[in-house]
């Protein structure tokens, strides 16, 4: 079933097929065999089959019968199949929701007591997803992540797993297939290009998701030697499990094969502070296109306190269009919404995002309602990113904006001068910074101030094995003491101010 739906166009076709079988005539007296089985096999079996993320298999009348009440409830409430766009947006080519006719058929059937009907009408049992098979064909390159152990009935786990790619030239990635080793426990995987969560977005997979095949003629550029970071959420089952997830990368044959870079724009806000207990905190973010562009998809990204997310485009002629409203944001489903009809965004088009968070104790997913929360990479921090995948109408990729990241620009120099002692640190609300902490002499903490990099000197550095102490001299703010520990390529830094308050942050070795 997943195979048919492997790419955006095939997906659209799949949705049409499932809808058209009953279009316009929800049946008077539906039976399972004739009317309901085709809908459920097409729309539920991908997740509700053995070895997949859903808690029960729904592949036969016998398996489905005990769940009818619950199915009725979830189909009525539109909570199954999971799909989070409000009605009236899109159409999206990967829309997973049921057509109205299909919903009616299931609900009518449930009300009639869920009759089986004539067995002879039963469609064949559907093909269930094969976890060992690559749905997009053998990838050009496979990255294998480290093994993760997930004990039964334990708390959810979050892992950031880096893998080096080691290609000696840039490559165009045309498709990414993320293959959990154990689909009963891998809930979602986000792939970032870079060493920290929050750098270049490559792809995401969530339970029941499809491989990410970028639209024909487009690709994402994978920089030579790049590290890919897999940001993983493991959701334990009732039994002990282990997972080895693989990432299959498909490349264009040559750098010339791609007409358009699938550019990943971040319409983000990093400056918010959500007060402890606030049930409805709002933040906005905005971006104005500086070139004629075409929007292909949008992906809202908040963390556990995320409540809702809305995108609006305002065009140069003053008209506007709401692109997406997700009133029930759910961090567990990292959904990318692919427009069936791409949105033209001429130069000057503005994208506005509005998000709300629920940081109160009424939010059952809230990791800590007593904490004021700011931007940060950990899942107990928050983010507000309105991802927009777009292509430029002229040329392959957007012309470089004058604004670049001063720290990113500076890093190669710093690393050349101080090999092995430069660490990249993502500061919540402030972005990328670089810590240089040499074995001898003076170092510095380089921070972006607008388009410029500024530096706070690090003095009195004393390394002892993997531990180091030093003083951080922030201009105008006195001296803070640093105590840090190196673990592999990451440096855990504790910074204590003059009042004795300690903040911890982690840096990654820049190479
Ligand atoms: C994309 C994956 C996916 C698809 C498609 C899907 N489900 Fe589910 N379903 C889940 C998961 C995962 C759960 C467990 C609860 C959760 O995490 O939201 C679930 C839970 C349920 C439950 C609640 C079970 C309980 O414990 O009470 C019902 C009922 C259900 N699904 C019915 C359906 C039906 C009917 C369809 C098709 C029309 C469907 N689902 C399609 C993933 C899916």
What are the salient characteristics of this protein?
globular; 8-stranded antiparallel β-barrel; Jelly Rolls; mainly beta; binds heme C; 6 helices; 4 domains; 511 residues; 6-stranded mixed sheet
* Radius of gyration of CA atoms, rounded to a whole number: 25 Å
The share of residues in extended strands comes to 35-45%
Question: What's the total count of β strands?
Answer: 30
Q: Residue-averaged pLDDT, rounded?
A: 87
* Uncertain segments: 1-24
CATH fold name of the largest domain, please? Jelly Rolls
Enumerate how many helices there are, as a single number: 6
Given the C-alpha coordinates, what overall shape results?
globular
The strand line-up of the biggest sheet is 23-24-25-26-27-28-29-30
CATH architecture of the largest domain: Sandwich
Query: CATH top level of the largest domain?
Result: Mainly Beta
Bound molecules: heme C
Structural class: mainly beta
Share of helix, binned: 10-25%
Give the CA-CA distance, first to last residue. Answer: 43 Å
Domain count: 4
The major beta sheet can be summarized as: 8 strands, antiparallel, barrel
Description:
The protein has six helices and 30 strands. The protein is mostly beta strands and 511 residues long. The strands form seven sheets. Strands 23-24-25-26-27-28-29-30 form an eight-stranded antiparallel beta barrel. Strands 1, 4, 7, 8, 11 and 12 form a six-stranded mixed β-sheet that branches. Strands 3-9-5-6 form a four-stranded antiparallel β-sheet, with no helix packed on it. α2 crosses α5 and α4 runs antiparallel to α5 (100-111). The longest helix has 13 residues, at 8-20. The protein is globular. The relative contact order is 0.10. Mean pLDDT is 87; it is low at 1-24. Bound molecules: heme C. Residues 40, 43-44, 46-48, 53-55, 67, 70-71, 74-75, 80-82, 96, 98, 207-208 line the site of heme C. Residues 40, 43-44, 46-48, 53-55, 67, 70-71, 74-75, 80-82, 96, 98, 207-208 line the site of heme C (HEC).
């Amino acid at each position: 079933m997943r195979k048919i739906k492997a790419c955006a166009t095939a997906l659209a076709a799949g949705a049409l097929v499932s809808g058209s079988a009953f279009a316009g005539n929800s049946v008077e007296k539906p039976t399972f065999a004739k009317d309901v089985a085709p809908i459920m096999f097409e729309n539920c079996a991908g997740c509700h089959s053995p070895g997949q993320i859903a808690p029960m298999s729904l592949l036969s009348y016998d398996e489905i019968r005990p769940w009818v009440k619950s199915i009725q409830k979830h189909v009525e409430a539109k909570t199954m199949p999971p799909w989070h766009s409000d009605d009236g947006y899109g159409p999206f080519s990967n829309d997973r929701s049921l057509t109205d006719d299909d919903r009616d058929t299931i609900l009518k059937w449930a009300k009639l007591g869920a009759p089986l009907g004539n067995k002879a009408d039963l469609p064949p049992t559907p093909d269930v997803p094969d976890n060992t098979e690559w749905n997009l064909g053998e990838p050009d390159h496979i990255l294998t992540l480290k093994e993760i152990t997930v004990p039964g009935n334990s708390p959810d786990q979050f892992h950031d797993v880096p893998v080096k790619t080691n290609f000696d030239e840039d490559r165009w990635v045309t498709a990414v297939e993320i293959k959990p080793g154990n689909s009963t426990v891998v809930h979602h995987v986000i792939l970032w290009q870079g060493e920290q969560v929050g750098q270049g977005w490559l792809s995401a997979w969530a339970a029941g998701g499809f491989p990410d095949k970028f639209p024909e003629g487009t690709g994402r550029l994978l920089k030579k030697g790049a590290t890919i970071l897999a940001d993983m959420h493991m959701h334990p089952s009732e039994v002990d499990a282990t997972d080895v997830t693989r990432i299959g990368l498909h490349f264009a044959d040559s750098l010339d094969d791609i007409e358009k870079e699938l550019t990943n724009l971040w319409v983000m806000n990093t400056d918010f502070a959500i007060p402890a207990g606030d049930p409805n905190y709002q933040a906005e973010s905005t971006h104005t296109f500086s070139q004629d562009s075409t929007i292909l998809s949008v992906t809202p990204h908040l963390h556990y306190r995320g409540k809702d997310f809305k995108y609006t485009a305002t065009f140069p002629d003053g008209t506007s269009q709401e692109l997406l409203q997700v009133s029930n944001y759910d961090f567990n489903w990292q959904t990318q919404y692919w427009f069936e009809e791409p949105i033209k965004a001429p130069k000057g088009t503005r994208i506005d995002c509005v998000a709300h968070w629920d940081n109160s104790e009424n939010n059952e997913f809230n990791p800590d309602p007593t904490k004021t929360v700011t931007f940060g990479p950990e899942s107990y921090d928050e983010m507000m990113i309105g991802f927009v995948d777009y292509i430029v109408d002229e040329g392959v990729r957007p012309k470089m904006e004058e604004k670049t990241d001063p720290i990113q620009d500076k890093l190669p120099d710093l690393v050349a001068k101080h090999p092995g002692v430069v660490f990249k640190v993502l500061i919540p609300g402030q972005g990328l910074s670089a810590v240089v902490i040499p074995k001898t002499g003076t170092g510095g903490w380089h921070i972006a101030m607008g388009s410029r990099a500024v530096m706070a000197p690090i003095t009195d550095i004393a390394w002892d094995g993997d531990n180091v102490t030093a003083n951080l001299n922030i201009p105008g703010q006195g001296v803070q003491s640093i105590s840090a520990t190196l673990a592999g390529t990451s440096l855990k830094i504790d910074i204590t101010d003059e009042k004795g308050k300690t903040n911890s942050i982690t840096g990654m070795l820049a190479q």
